[in-house]
Amino acid sequence: MKEKLSNIFIEVSRTGLEGYITLICKDTNLNFDYDEVISTVKEKIKIGLKDSIIRDMIDSKIYNERVCIAEGTPPVEERDGYIKYYFDENKKVTPKLKKDGTVDYKDLDLVNNVNKGDILAEIVLPSGGKDGRSVTGENIPCKKGKIPSFKYGKNVKKTENGLYLVSADRGQVKLINDRLVVANILEVSSIDNSTGNIEFNGSVKVNENVMNGFQLKAEGDIEIFGVVEGANIESLGDILIRKGVQGYNTGKIFSKGNVVAKFIENSFISCRRDLTAEAIMHSEVICNGTVNAIGKKGLLVGGICRARKEIKAKTIGSRMATSTVLEVGVEPENKIKCEKLEEEILTIRKNLSKIEKSLIVLENILKSNESEEKKNLYIKLKGIKKTLKTNLDKSNKELNLIKNEISNVSRGQIKVEDIIYPGVKIVIRDSVMFIRDEMSNCTFYEDEGEIKIGPY
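RE: above sequence
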């Protein structure tokens, strides 16, 4: 048998991404036929063939040497999926630098507030992967990326498709040990430079104090275990201040519910329901329910205290005849609106009177002197007069409506368990009484347009 002097040997790498050829030849004087070689190669190699390399091997008689003649398409791995948060999960307590170079330690924006139904997080699925092709034409699947899983707890739920977490309630969203939760109660040690101003859509618990100049706003209840010093507090619920309020005549407290404090001094307090404290001193109080000064002191002295229903205290005023104003039987907000409208009406009437006098003077001037300047001024003043009259009619109508509401409010009363001192002014609806002498154990009420005094 005659020995074969030449052969074509084709190999594919283990990954399938490279194809190799070896032109085996024992006689270097022999020539390979290009078409024969290509035909043989194509029986096995389907993708990425570099036929120019084969032609060069034949022309250059590169024999008995393994040469790469084909490259497949490698697969592209998918990027791992990840969890996208819809809030700042790495919030830093960083003071803000103002334009003037000073540093603002109050607006630190510390709390991530969310409402019921808000999207909190999303699983972003693996992406970017692409299958490869081997030199033999077979598919090479890409490596799949990892799909993360949610860890979540209180007040958080997963959507039906499993790709989103949403809030089941309003509150503060935060990560605790990589677990997502929504807390209904925000608990802080104090409200000061370490926290800045707080605005939260749940309830807030402050274990110590709220310092001077800071703000606390909550849609739920607020409980403060220390004192409030010259701060502004707002709540859509109740406010409980266990040690009291020193407002320094700048602090203001607004509540849509009840306010309870150990003491209130030099502050402004507005509440839609009841106010209870052991002492209320030199403050302005607006209360839609009952003001109740309780305990051993039960003191109400100085300032203005307005309540829709009732004011109760052990002691009202002081031996020093401290000016103290008590008003009941009228919704405080309506009373304030009424006073502002009366001032506004008085101002409009004064301006109307001045304009009417000016118009009379201008009319006399225009009879003898057709000055264009005076004529224009006259037209302008007539327009202002018309506007003022329209505003006057509007304010009078609004005032009458409020006075009708005031007249329909149930009669209030003021109850004094111990002593009420001279210097106190009592207003029940439209009736007024000034206390000239000390009185004790009595109740003030309105009857037939007069303030009368009964037993406690």
